[in-house]
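Can anyone check this?
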Amino acid sequence: QIAYKFLGGLAYAYGAENGYQLPYEKNFFIGGPSSLRAWKPRRLGPGGYQAGSTLIEQPGSVLLESSVEYRFNMFKFLGNMNGAFFLDAGNIWSLTDLPDVSGKFKLDSFINQIAVGTGFGLRWDFNYFLLRLDLATKVINPSNPVNKKWVLSETSFNSGENPIEFNIGIGYPF
């Protein structure tokens, strides 16, 4: 079975009340178990921006996100054990000026700032709920310099340039 999703979004603050800034909870975030699984939750973006810390959430006002999964049956053990291979792509951007211009949405450069991740997942289906474990790695990291965006060859189980992310969830990611 093939499953896919495509999401797009645009948020714009039209009042000068907060200096044309969106309220925090109205921003878009990307990364995590139900988004781009190769990145930690809310840590990707905006655009090619590279945060100084992985502890800082990255909000944006433009969202493009897509995922494709190939889902298959494996065996039965207290329910159905299923597997999935997946490919996730997308990013967020800002419409306003940021200190770093690599995070602003521009029609001529946004394609080069699309992040791509891939991986494998196990789904333990009990018919009334599903437990999920996904292992994901980055393929293209938009925050790297132009000649170092391809990072699949640097994948490792240790903390390095491209560590494997473990995502646990209940239910399908989409």
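Reply from J.R.: I decoded it. The two ends are 14 Å apart (CA to CA).
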